[in-house]
Every structure is written in C-alpha cells, then in structure tokens.
C-alpha cells in the first residue's frame, strides 16, 4: 500500500512539474539577461528536484477552483525563491556546500560573485512572475504579500540567521544547547514558512475566503514540519544515493536535529503526529475538488513513508 | 543661482525623506525578526543618504495626483532595494569595499553571512512593503512588475554582472577594451534602471495613463544617466569628504568610467546633454501639479551642478 501511494504521488508530481518546468524554461528564454547570469540562474533552476512547493501551490489553487494555467506563473515564482535560497545557503560564508543535487553547487561552478547575483536575480524575477498570475488583482497582491512575508526576515531569511547562530554555538561549544522549541521555531521559519505559504497562496489566488485559506495554511504548516523531521531522520538512516549527500552530514556540520535532540524513535512519532494534523486539516475541507484532496492526502503520507 | 537650486533641492529632499525614514523605522519595529538580522538590516537602511529614489517615486506620484501617504510604502520599498544592492555590492566577492557612507560596510560590521542575509531580507521585505501602497490593486501590481523588472536580471542585477565582467577584463588586461556603448548599457542597467523605475512606478501608482507614464520613464532614464556621468566626474575631481571615499577609487579598482573613456570635458558635455533631455521630458507634461514639476526640474539641474 505504501508503494502504491509513493507511485501515485511521484506520478502526480511529475505531471504537475512538467508544466512548472516548461514555464520556467520559457521565462528564461527571450530575455535580455547577460549570458553569464542567465547561465548561472538556469543551472540551478533547471537542476531538477521534486518541485514540491510549486506543486503544492497549483494543487491548492485547483482544489479551490482556479485553473492551473492561471496559477502557473505564481507557482513557478515559488520555485525561483526556493532555488535562490539553496544557492545562497550553499555559499562559503553560509553552509559552504560544494555539491547540490549531485552537481557542483552554483558558486563552485560559476564563482561566488555570480552565485550571489544569480540568487538575487532569481528572487527578484520571482516577484515579476507572481504579478503575472491571472486572478483578481487584489488577490494576486495578497498572495504576493503572503509569499514575501514567508520568504523574508520573519520567515525563511530569518530562519537561516537562526540556523547559523545555533550551528555556530554548537561548533564553538559555547552558550546554552539548542532546545526543541528553538529548533521547531527555526525550522518553521527556514523551511516551513515557504511550504505553508505555497499552500496558502494557492488558496488566496483562487479567491478562497476564510476557512479554505486557513485550512491550506494549517495543512502546509504541519506538512512542512513533518517534512523537516523526516529530513533529519533521513540524515541519520537514509542512503547516500537518494539523499544526494553523505549520511550524517548535518550532524558533522554542528547542526542540531530532531534526532540529536529527542532520538530516532521519538522523531518518528513527531513526524507521524505532524502528518496526522495535516490530514486532519484536509478532512475539514468541504465543497472542493475531491481529486486534489486525494493528492494532498497521498502527499502527506508519502512524506512520512520515506522515514519509516 | 546654482546655490539657490542646491538649497531648494536639499530642503525638499529633506522634507520628503523625513516621511520615508519614519516609515522605514516603523516597519522594522514590532516585527518578529531575529535580533542579529534586524540590527544588520537597520544598520544599512538607516545609515542616511539622500533617499533620492523614494523621493523621485513620491514626487511623480504626487505630481500625477496621488496623495503622498498612499505611495509612501512603495517609496520606502525602493530604498530597501537600493540598500540591499549596496550591501551585496560591497561584499568581498564583489567590490570588496570596507567602508560605506563613512562607516564600516555591512559585512565588516556583522560578518559576511549576516550581510548576505540582510540584503536578501531587505529585498524580500521591499516586495511586502510595495503591496501596502494604497491605490487600485491592478496599478499596484503593475508598479510591482515595473520595479521587479528594473531590479532584476535584466536591470540592476544584470548590470552588476556586466560591471564585474568589464572590471575583470581591465584588471586582467585581457580581451577588448570596454566601449562607450557597453559602458552606457551597463550603467543604464546597474544604476539607471532603478532611478527610471522609481519615477515610472510613481506615475503608475497614481493611475497615470500612457503619456505621463512615458514622460516619467524618460525623465528618469535621462536623470539616471546624468547622475552616473557626474558620479564618474566626481570620482576624478571631487573632494574625499563629500564623496565619502578616496578620489580616483573607481579608476584604481579597474572600473572603466566616462572620464577614462572620453575625458573630463566630453563627460561634462554628456552630463549636460542628459540633463537637457530630462528637462525636455518635464516640459511636455500637461495638467499636473506645477510645484512638483519645479522640484523635478531643480533636481535635474542640481545633479549637474555637482559636476561643474
């Protein structure tokens, strides 16, 4: 049964991401961008990956009744934001990672200056693409605000600052150890906010009022938490090939993880709890496209399966 | 007479920038931003400067009939974008500048990682602030698009890539020398685009149709060019105190400048020409607030005065 879910989710993600990739590829063509910059942006943007965040946005938009094509520019923009964050996180001054998705990281391939600028370019282009979503202008604006809040100083960027701070503390063996609460807050900003906002923005674009928007946000928040805990588990017990990086590399870098704080078994329980809460949000949806509810349910279960 | 103009412009910029600074200060307060990040963002954002770009946006918005308070969040956002670009340009991998506006540059004060993230944070917050402009949602969205295009890979970020490429060529004494056309294109992207877009976005926010928007863009493009040529002239003949950096520092870094390409006298002529073209755009405006036309005329002349 878990094989069935995995197969269904992979198929659905592949179908959705074909549209996202086609949009991204067309966006980068026919533009007056200096060659070195275009190449560096495209290198990371078209490096594959599951395209989870844009697919979440599309799924929630369609679930709430907005045609896929109308939400597509916005969904593609989210992938640009995610990609920029990976490029900047890999920089020598940050996590100093030489490899990403089995290829040299952006700064290894193009140099540090170009990598910083490719990230800046992707982040800025993202907001251009968002304005091209086809919905009520007031709703598009609201979705832009949701995304900027999630990606900015109170969200993803702030989370990266906390991550660096906590890691520095561990490596220097100074200060108080990181608590579970701090770890949770850090992750809800660093990775959770963008996943949550991808769902919420989909609902907002589809002009969905209070309840659906709230449930999208709730589902996204719990899914994001499950996703992060599973990531920490896989860092300990995953295999190098599917991880795309050595096992235990987070631990070696001084990162505090769910596993290092509460152990493997309790981490699995926490991931299971978060997944149940995500599913609970879906159960409370009414009057929406049932196929998309099925997809989002499968997706939440799939995230958990990886950790078992 | 040129003393009168300078005094008037300085007064007007000071009056406008009080509002911008108050808005920026209030934006950074009461937010759930990690302390280290907030401090680093505020350090550069509140470091003074003429606030030229937000003042241009406010002036064009008011000139076209939109109340100042309604455009203020958008104008403040433009200053966030400008500030982020200075932080990233100063990084060791880029221009490697230790000082900015008479203080240690952001990475000197807070370290490279925090400086990169402060820049990322400011750029992202900028798009949040833009959504708070009070005008027709479709117009706000269009103004966001204007700004993203100007700040992104086809504009400011692309211009910085070209600047690095040209500088590298000069320092390595390799490849063809930079031509006047290339220099002009590079500057129109790196510094011109944001100045032009500040004017254009003001008109767009005020729901101004074809002609006013086109004249705003034209004025901004010529003003931006004059501004850059004068900058190059001052790098040769200015005094260190008002420049905030050593005389000739661009030349020493391998930057090609208008002066290095066409000499001091021809550079002054080019600056004069650009200023005349900016003034010509203003002359063709009809049915707008005359006080703001006067301000924009003074401003264009003031830019030029500095170079004489």
UniProtKB/TrEMBL annotation, chains A, B:
Alphabetized PROSITE patterns for the sequence: POLYPRENYL_SYNTHASE_1 (PS00723), POLYPRENYL_SYNTHASE_2 (PS00444)
Extract the CDD domains matched here: Trans_IPPS_HT
Transferase as a keyword of this entry, yes or no, is: yes
Q: Name one GO biological process term.
A: terpenoid biosynthetic process
Cofactors, names only: Mg(2+)
Q: Which keywords has UniProt assigned to this entry? A: Isoprene biosynthesis, Magnesium, Metal-binding, Transferase
GO cellular component labels: cytoplasm
Q: Which InterPro entries match?
A: Isoprenoid_synthase_dom_sf (IPR008949), Polyprenyl_synt (IPR000092), Polyprenyl_synt_CS (IPR033749), Prenyl_diphosphate_synthase (IPR053378)
Q: What's a single GO MF annotation on this record?
A: prenyltransferase activity
Q: What is this protein called?
A: Polyprenyl synthetase family protein
Species of origin reads Oceanidesulfovibrio marinus
């Amino acid at each position: 049964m878990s094989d069935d879910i995995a197969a269904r989710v992979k198929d659905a993600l592949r179908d959705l991401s074909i549209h996202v990739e086609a949009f991204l590829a067309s966006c980068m063509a026919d533009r007056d961008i200096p060659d070195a910059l275009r190449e560096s942006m495209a290198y990371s943007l078209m490096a594959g990956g599951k395209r989870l965040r844009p697919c979440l946005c599309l799924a929630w938009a369609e679930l709430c009744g907005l045609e896929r094509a109308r939400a597509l520019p916005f969904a593609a923009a989210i992938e640009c934001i995610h990609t920029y964050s990976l490029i900047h996180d890999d920089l020598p001054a940050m996590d100093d990672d030489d490899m990403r998705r089995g290829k040299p990281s952006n700064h290894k391939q193009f140099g540090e200056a170009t990598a910083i600028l490719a990230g800046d370019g992707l982040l800025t282009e993202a907001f251009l693409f968002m304005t091209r979503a086809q919905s009520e202008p007031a709703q598009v604006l609201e979705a832009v605000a949701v995304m900027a809040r999630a990606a900015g100083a109170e969200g993803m960027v702030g989370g990266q600052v906390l991550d660096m701070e906590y890691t520095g503390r561990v490596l220097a063996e100074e200060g108080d150890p990181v608590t579970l609460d701090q770890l949770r807050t850090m992750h809800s900003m660093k990775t959770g906010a963008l996943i949550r906002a991808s769902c919420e923005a989909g609902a907002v674009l589809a002009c969905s009022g209070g309840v659906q928007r709230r449930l999208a946000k709730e589902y996204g928040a719990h899914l994001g938490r499950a996703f992060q805990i599973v990531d920490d588990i896989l860092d300990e017990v995953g295999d190098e090939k599917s991880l795309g990086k050595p096992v235990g590399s987070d631990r070696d870098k001084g990162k505090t993880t769910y596993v290092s704080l509460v152990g493997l078994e309790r981490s699995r329980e926490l991931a299971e709890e978060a997944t149940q809460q995500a599913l609970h949000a879906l159960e409370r949806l009414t009057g929406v496209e049932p196929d998309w509810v099925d997809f989002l349910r499968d997706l939440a279960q799939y995230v958990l399966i990886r950790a078992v």
